[in-house]
């Protein structure tokens, strides 16, 4: 076995290796991400967002951002690594290999005369008769005398030249990468070694596995509890207005586990008085309604009041403990709303379709929470059919400001956006009474609001026309344009205390049957990922159609240019229904902005099946079970219709107009789409033989 110094050195080298293997790649990856991160400003620069402090890069905030647990751990591990390297270097200096020429200060191959001369010179310095220092005596005996003997004695010199050591062949030595105290098997050291082996090899992996399994059994990949998904799945119904969606949203298990303290009673009572008008209580029986409200489960009451306080912007006077719960509630809201949206569009009926009305309700609730706008602001008021919600998301806008600009016959938010900058500035300063600086803030926010266009086409790959039972592929190009030139950006949300990326949901739906055929989330933040996905999708599609390499490369280049110009390719497949013409609608809904959603008509003509072959595996079984499911869904929808209140979605009037147009039979039927302004995108219909 190796000596104790060698074992200690091996142990330190082992620890250094175990630290370096994960630490070096992790550090390189983090540095690469920080260097390649875009420096372009993608958040709102108005004064209200500046006052919110979300994007402020103060010295304290920079230090706070750096001093995270991860960064401090990485820094500490690097310090430990440097200490280990320094200590190992010191140990290696102390355990130098036996080199007699080097010890005597000679070059290899020196003559015997030079060896004796050097030995006499060193003897004067280190011989015990000349130097009484014990260290000098030790060095003279173990090194100088031994080196002289190795180079002057014929046998020793032969051994050194043959085996590298004056004593001849040395035994094979092995070292163990453990500290010396663990190698002393006598006494308690053996127990410590056994305990370390059991702890590291058995207990530590077992503990990690238990923690991972317990967490994975409780949370999904989006860090939402499984119990929350179960609650959302069972509580969401086919027809839900946003206030009903609110009742489902606050039942999340994360919210139910938030504490309700005795000290919260008085602040919650004050909040109730402030937001009572938003709670849909019957004012004629206010006492009964109030008693009924407070009899609910305490966490439900607390969450609803906190959300209403946020929507009505009444959260400034909350006490510290309640303010902490309020911020935690808002921090969880985006991902809970995303999971609620997934539950709304989850295939429920026999045809594998989700529900449209609750999906729209979830998005509208998300918009109101991000912009801190009351749900009642969406109700039509006078000539303004859209309500005042879109205007209230602008900085310095209040209900009185909206009334003032309505005198100029500005009825909708879209009309306000389409005004010229000079005309809008005149209205804001002279009619609305805003200062020039406040009017400039409004312009900055209007430049951030996206204009969304959608181009949708539906076709059966490699076939002419669409026949019943075919697998239909939907191709949708979603484009975003902003006046400031950005593609992806953080929305103007001064009352939402966390940074929020805007996301869009593309829905291909039938508003007449309240069904969502296809749904997909769209993000404009990661251009590189979008380019990769679009290139791969176009390449696979073209290869399946038998296109040449040149045609494939050309199509891929066109797709990449589209993505770089602010578009995203969305693809999806669905089963073609029975023969007939279907008036579908593509919705592109933003979860952060009010008033920028868009919809376009998609008329799908399905012909009677004439091609050889059977239906695709996408087909659903039809039979008694499917019929029972459809009857149950119809009964559920009838019950929900009775519960609907006077809330009207911004899409309700558009849907009524679309139904009237469909009854009149206007417009040419194509397997394509119309853009946001109603221009038809041509596409060949195809024909089949009976």
Portion in helices: 40-55%
- Strand tally: 10
Describe the strand arrangement of the main beta sheet, using strand numbers: 1-5-4-7-8
- Principal-axis shape equals elongated
- Roughly what fraction of the amino acids lie in strands? 5-15%
Tell me the distance between the termini: 89 Å
Task: List the defining traits of the structure above.
27 helices; alpha+beta; about 700 residues; three-stranded antiparallel sheet
Write a compact overview of the structure shown:
Residues 631-659 have a biased composition (Acidic residues). This protein has helices at 4-36, 47-52, 59-66, 69-94, 100-103, 112-126, 134-152, 154-163, 180-183, 189-218, 226-235, 242-249, 253-256, 265-275, 286-294, 298-311, 320-345, 356-371, 389-392, 399-406, 413-418, 421-431, 436-448, 527-544, 549-564, 624-643, 652-664, and strands spanning 354-355, 451-459, 471-481, 503-510, 515-523, 567-575, 580-590, 598-606, 673-674, 680-681.
Describe this structure as you would to a colleague.
With 690 residues, the protein is of the alpha+beta class. It contains 27 helices and ten strands. It has helices at 4-36, 47-52, 59-66, 69-94, 100-103, 112-126, 134-152, 154-163, 180-183, 189-218, 226-235, 242-249, 253-256, 265-275, 286-294, 298-311, 320-345, 356-371, 389-392, 399-406, 413-418, 421-431, 436-448, 527-544, 549-564, 624-643, 652-664; strands spanning 354-355, 451-459, 471-481, 503-510, 515-523, 567-575, 580-590, 598-606, 673-674, 680-681. The strands form three sheets. The protein has a five-stranded antiparallel sheet with strand order 1-5-4-7-8. Strands 2-3-6 form a three-stranded antiparallel sheet. It is elongated. The protein starts with a helix and ends in a 9-residue tail after the last strand. 28% of the residues are buried. This is DnaJ / Sec63 Brl domains-containing protein. Residues 619-630, 668-678 have a biased composition (Low complexity). Keywords: Chaperone, Endoplasmic reticulum, Glycoprotein, Membrane, Protein transport, Transmembrane, Transmembrane helix, Transport.
């Amino acid at each position: 076995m190796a000596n104790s110094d060698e074992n200690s050195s091996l142990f330190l080298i082992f620890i250094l290796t175990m630290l370096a293997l994960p630490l070096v790649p992790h550090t390189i990856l983090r540095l690469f991400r920080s260097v390649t991160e875009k420096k372009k400003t993608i958040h709102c620069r108005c004064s209200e967002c500046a006052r919110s402090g979300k994007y402020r890069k103060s010295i304290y905030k920079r230090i706070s951002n750096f001093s995270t647990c991860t960064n401090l751990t990485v820094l500490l591990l690097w310090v430990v690594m440097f200490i280990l390297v320094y200590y190992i270097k010191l140990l290696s200096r102390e355990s130098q290999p036996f080199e007699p020429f080097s010890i005597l200060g000679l070059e290899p191959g020196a003559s015997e005369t030079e060896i004796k001369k050097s030995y006499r010179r060193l003897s004067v310095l280190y011989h015990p008769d000349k130097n009484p220092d014990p260290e000098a005596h030790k060095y003279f005996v173990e090194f100088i005398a031994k080196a002289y003997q190795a180079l002057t004695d014929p046998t020793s010199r032969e051994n050194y030249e043959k085996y590298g050591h004056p004593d001849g062949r040395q035994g094979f030595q092995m070292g163990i990468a453990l500290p010396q105290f663990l190698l002393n098997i006598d006494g308690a050291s053996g127990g410590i070694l056994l305990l370390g082996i059991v702890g590291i090899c058995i207990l530590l992996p077992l503990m990690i596995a238990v923690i991972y399994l317990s967490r994975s059994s409780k949370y999904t990949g989006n860090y939402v509890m499984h119990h929350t998904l179960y609650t959302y799945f069972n509580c969401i119904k086919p027809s839900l207005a946003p206030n009903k969606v609110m009742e489902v949203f606050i039942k999340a298990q994360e919210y139910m586990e938030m504490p309700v303290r005795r000290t919260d009673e008085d602040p919650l009572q004050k909040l109730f008085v402030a937001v009572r008008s938003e709670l849909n209580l019957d004012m004629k029986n206010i006492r009964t309604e109030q008693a009924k409200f407070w009899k609910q489960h305490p966490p439900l009451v607390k969450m609803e009041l906190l959300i209403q306080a946020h929507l009505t912007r009444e959260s400034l006077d909350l006490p510290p403990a309640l303010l902490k719960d309020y911020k935690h509630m808002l921090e969880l809201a985006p991902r809970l709303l995303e999971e609620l949206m997934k539950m709304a569009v989850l295939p429920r009926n026999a045809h594998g379709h989700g529900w449209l009305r609750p999906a729209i309700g979830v998005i509208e609730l998300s918009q109101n929470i991000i912009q801190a706008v009351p749900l009642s602001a969406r109700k039509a008021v006078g000539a303004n059919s859209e309500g005042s919600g879109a205007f209230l998301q602008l900085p310095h806008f209040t209900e009185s400001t909206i009334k003032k600009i309505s005198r100029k016959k500005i009825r909708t938010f879209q009309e306000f956006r389409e005004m010229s900058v000079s005309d809008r500035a005149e209205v804001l300063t002279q009619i609305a009474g805003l200062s020039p600086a406040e009017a400039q803030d409004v312009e900055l926010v209007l430049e951030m609001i996206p204009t969304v266009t959608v181009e949708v086409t539906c076709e059966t790959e490699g076939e002419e026309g669409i026949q019943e039972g075919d697998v239909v592929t939907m191709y949708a190009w979603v484009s975003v344009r902003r006046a400031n030139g950005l593609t992806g950006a953080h929305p103007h949300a001064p009352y939402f205390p966390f940074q929020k990326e805007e996301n869009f949901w593309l829905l291909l739906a039938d508003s007449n049957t309240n069904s969502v055929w296809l749904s997909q989330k769209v993000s404009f933040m990661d251009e590189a990922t979008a380019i990769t996905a679009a290139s791969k999708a176009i390449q696979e599609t073209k290869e399946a159609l038998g296109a040449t390499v040149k045609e494939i490369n050309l199509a891929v280049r066109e797709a990449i240019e589209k993505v770089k110009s602010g578009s995203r390719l969305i693809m999806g497949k669905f089963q073609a229904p029975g023969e007939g013409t279907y008036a579908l609608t593509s919705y592109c809904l933003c979860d952060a902005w009010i008033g920028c959603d868009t919809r376009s008509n998609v008329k799908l003509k399905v012909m009677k099946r004439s091609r050889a072959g059977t239906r695709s595996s996408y087909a659903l079984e039809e039979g008694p079970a499917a019929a029972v499911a459809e009857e149950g869904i119809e009964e559920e929808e009838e019950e929900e219709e009775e519960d609907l209140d006077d809330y009207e979605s911004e899409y309700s009037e558009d849907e009524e107009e679309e139904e009237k147009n469909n009854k009149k039979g206007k417009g040419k039927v194509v397997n394509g789409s119309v853009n946001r302004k109603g221009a038809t995108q041509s596409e060949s219909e195809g024909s089949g033989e009976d």
